[in-house]
Design a protein that fits this description.
4 domains, four-stranded antiparallel beta sheet, six-stranded antiparallel barrel, 6 helices
Length: 403
């Protein structure tokens, strides 16, 4: 009997402990629920991306804190000029580049200037040893000797008493023939660029000067040089020992799609940009639209002339060609910070209707002007778009999940 009372007492104590534990857990649950209900409704959800079933676009639901970190504006309009844009390359102006060949065949004796040197018109560039010049100078010296001999013979005949008239006339004829031959020989040497002073010196010393000096025909910079001593050079046989170019004007050769050819005309102004000077715009004019279209790319080469007095542009530079084909018109546009380039190369923007759910939308941007980007496709005027913080939203799609 005593044992039964003790067992009953233990059972009552166990039941009391269980009931107390249940009450404590219940109170804890109510407290947790009440605490959750005191949080802002917008902060009870994590920013887990989902896909809109109707559009297939990714949608993010942001917390209030995240919403406060982005800026939202309505899609507006902005004036953009109607322009055509393509790429091309900077080139020397071929019409202002001269290959300096010698006028006669010969071997190079000495070069006076090197690659990149600035030269003036008629400045000596190099000398060659020309067999033609040697032959002309040898003829000159022989003609001078013959002329001197005929002069002396004429003076001798005239001084002889009772000389026959026929002999006098023959001496005069020989002297006149020698004089004509000497003049012809002087002219032949003068063709090689020798001056009268140099010719007189050769006649007096009876020594030839085999060096033929080749001068620059124009002022400019040496853009090609291949003139080692002993090199055989011939007129018109490339490569020339020197090329002199006027670098104050460059060419920009752009490849324009054939559908735009009708919009372009010679003399129209062009804006050119190069990577080396990202904040510079070089002014140019279309100088030639080539007549042929590449059958493989269906593009036509358009040549523009660029004023480059400081010689800042280098041949081979990649250039951007922009030409305005019509006046400014209104286009849908958003601030540049609202456009995001995704890892796959697509361009996107974030659109919202309730300022809480944000849809990622693929867009097609156009021109950029005054920090505004022209939107060709993907957005409509009046839609709400993220203009500051769009990159932050895109990065949330690739961020690792947090606990």
């Amino acid at each position: 009997m005593h044992m039964s009372k003790r067992i009953a007492s233990l059972c009552v104590m166990a039941i009391a402990i269980v009931l107390a534990a249940i009450i404590i857990e219940t109170n804890r649950s109510h407290a947790g629920s009440a605490s959750a209900n005191t949080l802002p409704q917008s902060d009870q959800h994590s920013s887990v991306p989902r896909t809109d079933s109707s559009t297939g676009n990714v949608v993010l639901e942001l917390t209030q804190t995240q919403i406060n970190s982005v800026k939202i504006e309505s899609v507006g309009v902005y004036q953009f000029p109607v322009e055509k844009e393509t790429v091309g390359n900077i080139s020397f102006a071929d019409e202002l580049s001269v290959q300096v060949f010698p006028t006669y065949q010969g071997t190079i004796i000495q070069a006076f200037v090197g690659l990149g040197a600035q030269v003036e018109k008629d400045q000596p560039l190099y000398t060659i040893k020309s067999p033609d010049l040697i032959q002309a100078e040898s003829t000159l010296i022989g003609a001078a000797a013959t002329f001197d001999l005929t002069n002396k013979e004429l003076e001798r005949v005239k001084g002889l008493p009772g000389v026959a008239q026929r002999e006098v006339e023959q001496a005069i004829s020989d002297q006149q023939t020698a004089d004509g031959a000497l003049k012809a020989a002087r002219d032949a040497v003068r063709v090689f660029g020798k001056t009268d002073t140099e010719i007189d010196q050769m006649i007096a010393s009876r020594k030839i000067d085999p060096a033929l000096v080749v001068h620059s025909p124009v002022s400019g910079k040496i853009t090609w040089y291949n003139a080692p001593p002993g090199l055989l050079v011939q007129p018109g046989n490339p490569p020339a020992p020197y090329t002199v170019s006027n670098l104050s004007v460059k060419w920009m050769l752009a490849n324009v799609i054939e559908s735009d050819i009708g919009l372009l005309h010679s003399g129209e102004p062009v804006q050119v940009k190069v990577i080396a000077y990202p904040n510079r715009v070089f002014r140019a004019k279309i100088s030639k639209i080539y007549p042929a279209v590449d059958p493989n790319t269906h593009r036509c080469t358009v040549r523009s002339e660029i004023e480059d007095p400081k010689d800042e542009l280098r041949p081979g530079m990649l250039a951007n060609f922009v030409i305005r084909v019509a006046g400014p018109t209104l286009w849908t546009a958003i601030p540049a910070n609202g456009v995001v380039r995704e890892p796959d190369g697509t361009m996107t923007a974030w659109v919202t209707t309730d300022r809480r759910h944000f849809e990622q939308r693929t867009i097609k941007p156009g021109l950029r002007r005054d920090d505004r980007v022209q939107i060709l496709n993907g957005l409509q005027r009046g839609e709400l778009v993220v203009t500051d913080g769009a990159l932050f939203l895109s990065s949330m799609l690739t961020a690792p999940p947090t606990d």
